[in-house]
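Teaching assistant here, posting this on the class forum so everyone can see the example we discussed in section. The complex has four components, and the goal was to see what a joint structure prediction looks like when all of them are supplied at once.
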Amino acid sequence: MTKIPVGILGATGLVGQQYIALLAEHPWFEVRYVAASPRSAGKAYKDVTAGRWHHTKMWGNGVESLIVEDANQVSRAEEAVKRGDLSFVFSALEMEKDAVKTLEERYAAAGIPVISNASANRWTQDVPVLIAEVNPHHADIIPLQRKSRGWDKGFIAVKPNCSIQSYTTPIWALIKAGYQIQRVIVTTMQALSGAGYPGVPSLNVIDNVVPYIGGEEEKSEEEPLKIFGSISNGVFQNAEYPKISAHCNRVPVTDGHTACVSLEFGTQKPSIEEVKQIWASFTSLPQELDLPMAPKHPIILREEADRPQPRKDRDTDKAMAATVGRIRPCNIFDLRFVGLSHNTVRGAAGGGILNAELLKTKGFIK
Amino acid sequence: MTKIPVGILGATGLVGQQYIALLAEHPWFEVRYVAASPRSAGKAYKDVTAGRWHHTKMWGNGVESLIVEDANQVSRAEEAVKRGDLSFVFSALEMEKDAVKTLEERYAAAGIPVISNASANRWTQDVPVLIAEVNPHHADIIPLQRKSRGWDKGFIAVKPNCSIQSYTTPIWALIKAGYQIQRVIVTTMQALSGAGYPGVPSLNVIDNVVPYIGGEEEKSEEEPLKIFGSISNGVFQNAEYPKISAHCNRVPVTDGHTACVSLEFGTQKPSIEEVKQIWASFTSLPQELDLPMAPKHPIILREEADRPQPRKDRDTDKAMAATVGRIRPCNIFDLRFVGLSHNTVRGAAGGGILNAELLKTKGFIK
Amino acid sequence: MTKIPVGILGATGLVGQQYIALLAEHPWFEVRYVAASPRSAGKAYKDVTAGRWHHTKMWGNGVESLIVEDANQVSRAEEAVKRGDLSFVFSALEMEKDAVKTLEERYAAAGIPVISNASANRWTQDVPVLIAEVNPHHADIIPLQRKSRGWDKGFIAVKPNCSIQSYTTPIWALIKAGYQIQRVIVTTMQALSGAGYPGVPSLNVIDNVVPYIGGEEEKSEEEPLKIFGSISNGVFQNAEYPKISAHCNRVPVTDGHTACVSLEFGTQKPSIEEVKQIWASFTSLPQELDLPMAPKHPIILREEADRPQPRKDRDTDKAMAATVGRIRPCNIFDLRFVGLSHNTVRGAAGGGILNAELLKTKGFIK
Amino acid sequence: MTKIPVGILGATGLVGQQYIALLAEHPWFEVRYVAASPRSAGKAYKDVTAGRWHHTKMWGNGVESLIVEDANQVSRAEEAVKRGDLSFVFSALEMEKDAVKTLEERYAAAGIPVISNASANRWTQDVPVLIAEVNPHHADIIPLQRKSRGWDKGFIAVKPNCSIQSYTTPIWALIKAGYQIQRVIVTTMQALSGAGYPGVPSLNVIDNVVPYIGGEEEKSEEEPLKIFGSISNGVFQNAEYPKISAHCNRVPVTDGHTACVSLEFGTQKPSIEEVKQIWASFTSLPQELDLPMAPKHPIILREEADRPQPRKDRDTDKAMAATVGRIRPCNIFDLRFVGLSHNTVRGAAGGGILNAELLKTKGFIK
């Protein structure tokens, strides 16, 4: 099978590098186009990232010798499409929000689908925020998006913030099993890689915790409601529940966001055993389709008293699963648990790749 | 003024060492008696703690050459009392809970007041759990305790768990200002020194977080209710409110427990500004009495977006204050904030010393 | 092909666990026997290591349900041999040195080859200390060892201390290329896992470095001389050179020992370029035999200014390579470089497995 | 006594902040002038450093409300001199090297003495690089510097790089005792604060060590030779010995540089006991003059096997001492030891203040 040629916008940053590392041996996709800021343009990818390459293995299949393009020059991408080197792009752009929004739209308008990690288009009314196991049906908006925008082949689909991935799928599994969830109070302990590179200065976090991440609490509270929402008249309608209140903290951990969750059900309340059973047996469309990047078990249950832990659990199941543990009653709400997911894999590049796989099986990318 | 001679039970452990460091230049108390496990007994304090002394300064005034006694031999302490070398003891015993309870009672029965950090006697009905700024009046139970036990000069007073100190005083300040607090959901990020020494293995916490500390959530949920409670018929009656639900985590921080708190008021709800004003202006009996170990401001308010932080705020005001920040509304309950206190000073030895100072001014120790 | 059944002595410790993780999918060996201290005996391996299992993946092929044996009861191992469940053992015993020595000899005397990580037998005159790429010919002593001890099938072969693995192979490559090395001054920055589990208390190393590891400097200075030595009259004769002086430090790194090396050649001095060429092209017997655990490149050269680094380079080439960088002249000796190797893989279990593979190809184990 | 008004150039950076923290209660000096980059100019010091103030205590005596000046506008400093608000400046400028050199000369030419931490003028022929305990007599060049430059009151005096402070004073003490030192091989493990702020990204150092710091090895090898040198014809003449070879590493420690030193004496070799005695009894001019910032003991000897350690020893004696330990023979050179000093206090702001105190007693600043 010939692989689909893909491009990475923001290819030199932390998430861009993660895309390249994860796609090095992907069965369907092959990185043939890398774009970044103008100051990197014209140089070999290897030279631009030398000294700040974050992985053990060096680059991927030939990516090291690709010449970095200027991400602002969409025409260069169009030329790549014409010569068969580009079918769609993953966006890991690290620019000012409005600039990202405009640029992603320019790619889509040029007929190039954009699978994005950026936050810029998450609240665009006709752009789906996809977690492949939770709301794969939200991809159904893409034809409407194309139509209303006047786009032919291009479209924009995004993924949510990394901070919510450790508890959104578990919550969804409970909703899907028929239990309404009214309220969620969550405290996250988030990894350093979530801030990109250079990101958090080491003097801020050695022997320390920083109880604040700009904008993160708002995203954590609002994004799940769009993901749990529905499509109505060609735009997304947020779910009303659960109400979420978040405390977001930065801790001295390289990768892996941990969340302490307190959760209140509606009138129907499952037992702790039932919650465990729902989570342990949860699978969804990506598992049915056996997508290459899909974890075998989207939710992994740990029974030990002291798990999940970021260093020990983040890499489980291709670093794509949410690991949950400490499932116990709450003396104020109904249920308490701890969730964990790998923020630069499941929460960023891996999640983006899984979305692309899903959209390919649905025929939106080719 | 002649200083009061004091003893430390469990003098060689992390908290015992903290007592000795803090008392090195205390204006009222002087360490003249150190006791620990039988295997340390008979050796000079300096030799027992060499290679595991945790402070920059070496020991205190002559403590280094004191001969360590066997803490189980209460008769040795009685002899010290007779020769004028001991008036009361601080207990930082690290033994099995029942053994601590019995041993502390034996000291009290021998006429030696026990100011304890141990958890063993926290739920003993007639033993006060004191935070000097919150419930100094609980010391009033001591005459009743002495009477019912048949103790003459001895008594037992304890301090609560270190995990609750960053939010209990702030909550109390609000209650004292007339606001009932119904419910509290709190997630703590606790320092390594809270586990004593050797305590947490380094392999557990480098690049990691452990979302579990045995017994800590129960203590966090229950101890404030005794502290906020009242004395009735010679025993303590727990307060009914607030209901507390806790998630306790261990993070790679040496000292300083951080807590993310979500709090629901009763029908009367103060504004955010009023909360800040209540906290900034809070003082209590230790401040009025100008006790040597009392912080000038028991609650310190930080307005920066990203404070309090353990490494930067734990040492404020002799490491005896609770620093609060990120005071903001909660979209589920009413108020969210972050609290921080130094767990081995305010939360252990410093809190014990402040209790002793309080009990001295009340005439219970001499 | 039927796999050779192997046992692990000290199976529940950090290195024992590493053996089990690495052997989970080994093409030649299969763990069928696990032994540890008497207090673990009689329980399922899974239950003994629950809550202190250090790897992401849980156990290996069925090892989780093996019943742990008492390592002191050699007769149990003999029974396992008889029923075809044991062919040889990896020793990762964490007991007092003399006890390990005696116990390893008892296994060997019982006809069970012992491939050991323990230090107990490193200075036994007729026991080879093997680095498979450096002194594979030292295995030739095994027939002599068997003969003089009166052992039939059993023998003891050990591997050196983890601290020397990042520079011993590079030094050997230079010696093999014809350059005498006179003197080496080395400073190591060693990972926490080198101390086992629970090992180093977290309070010792957060925001800290400990410039001392008991016994490590002596091992670092002396073991290479046995490895570079020769067999004479059935016992080992140490090499005279290089003289080594070591400073060993503990740093807050989970895995991966780093060494800063200053090295003085004899009269023949290679150029920096020649050194690089020797290292980049070095291979040895394990590579020729294509042993399963052998790294493709025993020495990996990094040209970046700031490599090798433990977190980024320790896992290269199955975590079995030594990565070297910062190769530059020395203004006192001749050459300076930085070496790095993974201490619990190359420096412990992985090195042991590679030795076993080598000894199998030589016919010593079957 | 009226305090001497001083200014800080580069007042908002990490070292600038350290100056302000250390001078908060200084008996001789008072910060009355703060200057930084143009973008900070015109704002209150408090506002510029809010959110990036690195100390527990907030600012110093009134410094928080000083308006930050543009460091490039020397005329502003001259005006401050005229109105009695400035007598001399501490330079902690973080600009390009040539720019610093020129700017410091402009201040000196304007009659304002410059006590600098910057490296720009360290190799200027007539500028002394002072360690107050080692080469206080190098201040004698100041009249010659003034004369040849045509400066009236102004002059430039600098301090050396922070990396050398843990071993240069101990080495000097041995030289002063009559022992020639031929060769030194040193490996440093340097703290993060040495790189300023934001400095080292956290992702570079969590669970990691970086074996490279740009330019640091050259400074470590060369600066001691100027410090140990002499004045000849109005310029400095380097000492010929010791030859130094350095490996410089960055480790995850906030403050405190540690050095592992191997040292070769000339023909006269002191015993280990004599070395200890020389170090323990070493004092110099700052101690004789009882300068406010001078440590009581410039060299502190620790006899424990595992000291010095950065977190435990960096703050000893006002964080101004070099702590040495692990003093033992070397099997290649003659002596091995570990040295430690606080890099932002002794190695930066504290060292600068001590130099200023020395220069005041010598009459160069008033």
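For the discussion questions: Residues 112 and 154 of chain C are 5 Å apart (CA to CA). Chain C has a mean pLDDT of 96. Think about how each of these relates to the inputs above.
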